[in-house]
Amino acid sequence: MKRIGVLTSGGDSPGMNAALRAVVRTALSRKIEVAGIFGGYSGLINGDVKTLGHRSVSNIISRGGTILKTSRCEEFKTKEGQEKAIEILKRNEIDGLVVIGGDGSYHGVQALARDWKFPCIGVPGTIDNDLGGTDFTIGSDTALNTALDAIDKIRDTLTSLERIFVVEVMGRMSGYIALNVALAGGAEQVVIPERKFDLQQMAQDITEGYIRGKASWLIVVAEGVVKGQEFAKKITDLTDLETRVVVLGHIQRGGSPTAKDRILATRLGATAVDLLQKGETGKAVGIRADEINVVTIEEALKKTPLKTENICSLIKILT
Q1: In what order do the strands lie in the sheet with 217-222?
Q2: Nearest to 219 by CA among 255, 253, 191, 259
Q3: 85, 37 contact by CB (below 8 A)
Q4: What angle do the packed helices 16-29 and 259-277 form, to 10 degrees?
Q5: Residues 219/166, Cβ–Cβ less than 8 Å
Q6: Which of 10, 18, 239, 254 has the smallest set of CB atoms within 10 Å of its CB?
Q7: Is the CB of residue 143 less than 8 Å from the CB of residue 177?
Q8: Is the pLDDT score of 42 beyond 90?
Q9: How are beta strands 283-288 and 243-247 bridged, if at all?
Q10: What distance in Å separates the CA atoms of residue 137 and residue 276, rounded to the nearest whole number?
C-alpha cells in the first residue's frame, strides 16, 4: 500500500474533517502517500484528485463540514460510472480508498470492493446515527447538541407566550435526532419514522391539557414523517389553538464538532488506514462499548433498529 485515496460523500457531518486529518496523518506516518478526492464520488469520476500533505489538514479538527467537499452522485450508481471511477483510481496510482459518509456512501464502498475488487474501507460519517456495527456515527453527537440548543431557546418563548410549537428536525428515514432531543429537551410529543402516531389523540391530549391550564406544548417531528408546516396546521385545525412551527434544517449539519465527535472521528480514521495496510477491504469501522469494532460493509448497511418504546413511554410519563 503505497498510496491511498480519501473522499467524503453524501450529506456532510461535523467531524468529517477530523476523520480526514486522522487518515492523512496516520498514512503519512507509515510512509503512505495520500490522494484527496474532492467532491465525493462525482469528484472521483471527474478526476478531481490532489495529493495531500501534513499541512493540508492543519487546523481542521475543529471545523465542521468537509474541506474535501461532498456531493450525491447518481452516475456512480451505474456500472459505467463505477468503471470511470476505477480508471481514475488506477491512473492516479491509488492502491486503496477510504470513504467517509453514510449509507449511500457505503453502497459505493460495497460496489467497489465486491464488484471491482478494489480495496475500500468505510468510515461512518452521518448525523442520523443509523449505520450498523457502531454505537455512534461521526457527527451525530454534534447534531443532537445543536438541535437541543435550539429547542432550549424555543422553549423559553413557548412558555413565555403559552403557545404550541412544532419543531421539525432532520431525519428522513431515522428518528434518532428527534427521539433523543425530544427527551433531552422536555418535549411533550415526538413523531418519528419508526413509530406510528395518532394525530387525533395528540390533539385530544393538547386540548385536555389546555383545559387543565397547560397552555404550552412542544412537539418534535422528524422531517421524514411529516413536514412541520403541514403538521402544525393539522394541530391548529383540530384544537383551534395557535400553533407555531420552527424548521431547524441544515443548522443541524454545521458547527464545530463536539469533543466526542472529534475523538470518535480520529480513532476511526486512523483505524481505516490500519485496515487498508493489512489488506482488508469491504469493511466498515465503528465503535462498540468504546472499543473499535470492524464489520463487513453488508453488516454496516443493516441499520441498527432504533429502540423507541422506553423513551416514548418516558416522554409521555414526564409530560
Answers
A1: 189-191, 217-222, 164-169, 243-247
A2: 191
A3: no
A4: 40
A5: yes
A6: 254
A7: yes
A8: yes
A9: unpaired
A10: 20
C-alpha cell at 182: 425530544
Average pLDDT over residues 249-274: 96
CA 174 to chain centroid, in Å, comes to: 10
Residue 214 C-alpha cell reads as 397547560
Coil/strand/helix, residue 36: strand
For 10, left (φ over 0), alpha (ψ -120 to 50), or beta?
left
The angle at the Cα of 149, spanning 145 to 152, to the nearest 5 degrees, equals 135
**Cell numbers linked to 288:** 462498540
Kindly state the average pLDDT of the residues 50-70: 97
Residue showing cell 486522522: 22
Amino acid 129 reads N
Hey, what's the cell of 101?
459518509
Residue at grid coordinates 412542544: 218
Q: 0.85 cut: is pTM over it?
A: yes
- pLDDT(212) > 80: yes
pLDDT digits (tens, 9 = 90+) for 178-209: 999 999 999 999 999 888 889 999 999 999 99
Residue type, 8: T
Of the given ranges (209-223, 225-239, 297-311), which has the lowest mean pLDDT? Answer: 297-311
Q: Is 12 a catalytic residue?
A: no
What's the pLDDT tens digit per position in 112-142? 999 999 999 999 999 999 999 999 999 999 9
**Could you tell me how many residues make up the chain?**
319
**CA distance linking residue 98 with residue 4, whole number of Å:** 8
Q: pLDDT, tens digit, for every residue of 242-251?
A: 899 999 999 9
CA distance 215 to 206: 8
Q: One of 12, 128, 130, 141 is an active-site residue; which one? A: 128
- Give the residue carrying C-alpha cell 461512518: 124
What are phi and psi for residue 81, nearest 5 degrees? -65, -40
